[in-house]
Design a protein that fits this description.
The protein is an alpha/beta fold. It has a single domain, classed as 2-enoyl-CoA Hydratase, Chain A, domain 1. It is built from 10 helices and 9 strands. The strands form 2 sheets. A 6-stranded mixed β-sheet has the order 1-2-3-4-6-9, sandwiched between helices. Helix 2 runs antiparallel to helix 9. Bound molecules: zinc ion.
């Protein structure tokens, strides 16, 4: 069973479903590559005009895999976003810097620039690495049970690798979101402009499909050029530069953690993070 399911639906829509429901769709590299295969299939298929990304089970995604038996950060994997060398046989900071640049920042940017409109369909948890997937999509539609958080400051890290926080919400709100690491519910996410719409959980699939099919009636090149125009505008407003600059701080944090605690996550794991995140 693939970690990302792919289907082509009627009306010019492809739908990708994150498929590790037992671990709240935690992302390992296997899932990243399966996701990329699906995005590539959708990009190359002329019958597909719009792409939906959703999660199976109770949650969209709990983030990067930091604790399941299938966690695979030490294994080599195929490069698709860059020509940087393999990380698996490298030491500490070199390994982390090279791996995360490829698997997280590079792959999310690759999907963000895919020349067809993408819609993130969010229900349940969308945490840390989950935000990166949602934020690299063009539209975000959430159900009323969805919540968003980036609690990695608790690991001593200034936010997830795809550092779009001060762009998807205003900078003051981004500070609150990160400093507290608390959950932002769907209504508040709508209010701060991070998402496009909130709908009831039981009509989420249909609502997103309806939006996708209506977009799919637009001409392919019109959609591709419009997407490029807005992505270019975001980059000229500083998104790309900000991410590059923050990636350096992010890896200073990982290196500092590795020097002062047991590992690059400051000794935190899925269990300890889940425990402190619960009440928030
Ligand atoms: Zn990292």
């Amino acid at each position: 069973m693939s970690e990302a399911l792919y289907e082509v639906l009627e009306g010019g829509v492809a739908r990708i479903t994150l498929n590790r429901p037992d671990v709240r769709n935690a992302q390992n590299i296997k899932m990243t590559l399966a996701l990329d295969d699906a995005f590539k299939a959708a990009a190359m298929d002329d019958a597909v005009k719009v792409i939906i990304l959703r999660g199976s089970g109770k949650h969209f995604s709990a983030g990067h895999d930091i604790g399941t038996p299938e966690r695979d950060i030490h294994l080599p994997f195929e490069r698709r976003a860059s020509l940087w060398w393999d990380h698996a046989d490298k030491a500490l900071s070199e390994s982390a810097f090279v791996r995360e640049q490829e698997a997280y920042l590079g792959m999310c940017r690759r999907w963000r620039d895919l020349p067809k409109p993408t819609i993130a369909q969010i229900h349940g948890a969308c945490i840390a690495g989950g935000l990166m997937l949602a934020w690299s999509c063009d539209l975000i539609v959430a159900s009323d049970d969805a919540f968003f958080s980036d609690p990695v400051v608790r690991m001593g890290i200034p936010g997830v690798e795809y550092f779009a926080h001060p762009f998807v919400m205003n900078p003051r709100k981004a500070k609150e979101f990160l400093f507290l690491g608390e959950r932002m519910n769907a209504d508040e996410a709508l209010q701060v402009g991070m998402i496009n719409r909130v709908v009831a959980r039981d009509v989420l699939d249909d609502s997103v499909l309806d939006i996708a099919r209506r977009i799919a009636q637009m001409p392919r090149m019109g959609l591709a050029l419009t997407k490029k125009a807005i992505n270019q505008a975001e980059d000229r407003m500083g998104l790309r530069d900000v991410m590059d600059a923050t990636y350096g701080l992010h890896h200073f944090a990982h290196a500092h953690n590795a020097l002062t605690s047991t590992d690059h996550l400051g000794g935190q794991d899925a269990k300890s993070m889940a425990k402190t995140n619960k009440g928030s």
